[in-house]
Amino acid sequence: MTKIRAAVAHEFGQPLSVEEVNLRAPEAREVEVTLEACAICHSDISYMDGGFGGDLPAIYGHEAAGKISALGAGVKGYNVGDSVLVTLMRNCGNCVPCNSGSPTICATPTDMQAPISALDGSPVAQGLDCGAFAERVLVETNQLALIPADMPMEAACLLSCGVITGVGAVVNTANFRAGQTAVVIGAGGVGLNAIQGARIAGAAKIIAVDMLPEKLEAAMEFGATHGVLASHPKPWSEVRKITAGKMADAVFVTVGATQAYDVALRYVAAGGNMVMVGMPHAGDKATYEPMTAAFTGKSMLGSMIGDVVLKRDIPWMVDLYQQGRLKLDELVSGRYKLEQINEAIADTRTGTARRNVVLF
Known about the structure:
This protein is of the alpha/beta class. It is about 25% helix and about 25% strand. It has two domains: about 1-160 and about 325-360, Quinone Oxidoreductase, Chain A, domain 1, CATH 3.90.180.10; about 165-305, Rossmann fold (3-Layer(aba) Sandwich). Strands 3, 5, 6, 9, 10, 17 and 18 form a seven-stranded mixed beta sheet that branches. The protein is globular and about 65 Å long.
C-alpha cells in the first residue's frame, strides 16, 4: 500500500476533507499514474451533492493528467514515465457497444477491485472510476491516452472530459457537417468546447445561448458567431431572426438544467437534432410536446462523453491544439493546490469559471 493525499467526501453536500488514504499496487491490466493536474467538472459536483447517488466516503475527480509511475502485470503499450490522460471511460473492449465503436456506453460492469482504502482499512469509493482528486490514481489501461511529453498538464487534463465531451458531441454524436447552423445552450466549459467543435467542423453559424453577457463574450472568443441571452422572454425567436427562420440543424444542450431541455426543441429546425450533453440530477424531468417533434422530424440524441474513442480522437485533438486550432490554455480559469480544492469547487459553482484546475 502507498499512502497518498486525497480530497475525500464523507457527506453529500459538505466540503471535502484533504487527508491521507491508502492506494494499493497495480494488478493485471492496471496502471498507477502520479497526477500533475486535475480539472473540476460539474459532474464531480453533482456526485458530491448526491445528485447521482453512489457510496461514501468517496474520492471524486476524473479530468486528469500525469505520468505513469507503476505498471501491473502484463501491461503492454505503456511505460513508466509516459505522459497520459486519465479518463472515466473504463470499458471491457468485448461487448457489443465496445465492438461497435461505442466504448463510452460499455455494457459490462467493471470488475476492478476497489483500489483505495482509509488508513484504518475501511473502503473508500473510487468516484467515476478515477478518484482523481488525489496525488495518484490506479486505473485500467483502457482509461488512458498517451500525450506528448512536452504538453502542459493543465491543458492536457481538459482533454480527459470537458473538451472531448463538447467537441465529440458535435463531430461524433451529431455528425455535424460544414455549412450547418449550431445552437449551443450554455457557454460554460463544455459549451465552449461544443462551440469549438462546430467551428472546427465548418459551421456557417454558431449561436451561443446563456444567461450571462460575459459568458456570451467568451463564446465569441471560442468561435461563436452570435450570442443570445437566455433571459430574453423568447430567446428562440432571436435565433429565428438570426437564421432567417431556418433555425438550427443541431442544438447542443451543455448544461444540466431541465429548464434548458424544456425549450431546446424550439431552436431545432425541421429534420434537425437536439443533442443531450449536460446531465441533470437523477430523477429530474423535462417536458416536451411529442407531436411537434414527430410532425417536423426532429430527433433527440444522447451524447455520453462525446461518443469518443480515445485512441481515435485524442491524437487529432492534440494535433489541433499544437496547431493552435483547438483552444485549451484559454479554458483554464484558475489554478489551485489540493489544499484549496473547496475554494476551487466554490468558484466552479458560481458558473463563471471555464475550468478550474488543481495542480499537484
